[in-house]
TrEMBL record:
<protein>
    <submittedName>
        <fullName>Uncharacterized conserved protein YbaR, Trm112 family</fullName>
    </submittedName>
</protein>
<dbReference type="Pfam" id="PF03966">
    <property type="entry name" value="Trm112p"/>
</dbReference>
<dbReference type="InterPro" id="IPR005651">
    <property type="entry name" value="Trm112-like"/>
</dbReference>
């Protein structure tokens, strides 16, 4: 995902702008892993393998997202038995932290 895409994305639930915390980016600047968060409804949307997962709650599967979120150190309320995909207040603040400049880079293809 190109970093500039964040300017075109909005929360699919309430149409507010999203914040982004990047966890892994390619050396060319493409975002590989990130967490998009809506400050209004507190929902999160992971970016996995460069693809933003922005489906509505009823079509999401917590068990698919949970391992990646846990690897990132994010524990959303949804992982604690609640039925939605919202972040706890402290997770929302942490998720709006460092941007792409602080994320580790993956090397490009040498071929």
């Amino acid at each position: 995902m190109k970093a500039s895409l964040i300017d075109k994305l909005c929360c699919p639930m309430d149409k507010h702008d999203l914040n982004m915390r990047v966890f892994v980016k390619h050396e060319d600047g493409d975002i590989i892993e990130a967490l998009l968060t809506c400050p209004e409804c507190r929902r999160y949307f992971p970016v996995i393998s460069g693809v933003p997962i922005m489906t509505l709650d009823e079509y999401r599967d917590k068990s698919i997202e949970a391992p990646t979120l846990q690897r990132w150190g994010v524990t959303p309320a949804a992982l604690e038995g609640e039925n939605n995909f919202e972040l706890k207040e402290e997770e929302l603040l942490a998720a709006s932290g460092p941007k792409a400049l602080d994320a580790p880079e993956l090397p490009g293809d040498e071929g």
